[in-house]
Sequence to fold (270 residues):
Amino acid sequence: MANRKGNIVGDGRTEGPPREVLLRGLSILENLNHRAVSSVEQLAGSTGLPKATVVRMLNMLVSAGYVQRLPYRRGYVLDESVLTLSSGYRSHDLIVQIAKPLLSAFTARTRWPLSLATLDRTMMRVRVGTLQESPFATETDMSRLARRLPMLSSALGLAYLGFCPDDERETLVTQLSALKRRTDAHMAAIRSLPGLVARIRAAGYAVSPPEADNAAVGLAVPVLQGNRVLACISLRYLARAMTVSEAASRHLEALHTMAGAIAEASFRNR
Fold:
């Protein structure tokens, strides 16, 4: 049954305008996608919604076939109907289409997840990745799917800054310096960038600064077409599993080969 505003009431009761109900449901689905199994408490914490609202939204999604409730209160998982949500989507970005099977093949072989990102103004936007295909992807990384990442504190952003043309880097630095929410740490990172760029170019890769809330480290390389950076690829690995030098020794050659293959295929098919 619906009230005068068209909102669902009764057993699947929700409150607020239809737009808010829709966005809450999408938020629940997005966060269910970040874990194998989610509890009401976890979903409330990650979405910022009250537990009662989360329960009501879950009940609606279960009845619609998008979510499955596990027995014995073990939690909630996505159900098969979510597959219909993406069945009509086609990416028109050639580099994403080319990269996806190559990234998946790498993760199938090594089990480590990869992400590919492109420049989005003064940030990097993750366009495609294999976090869901890896048993080693952290929960923090999963929450970053399709998110915009800061250039100065991500391996993807630092790799872009390290290998883009000098004039493009100068423009980006000017824009980064003018950001309204810049902090002392942000400005210090900009001041140290010239020396960091030299080290990145000499090494052939960039590494993400350590994060207190994430056990994963990023090691990123550019996808270069001439002197233009088309995208960057980041290997996400656990710091306790190997050092930066070990990660580079084991995987850097394969990452550069993959980046070269993506750039070549992009050039042939443009």
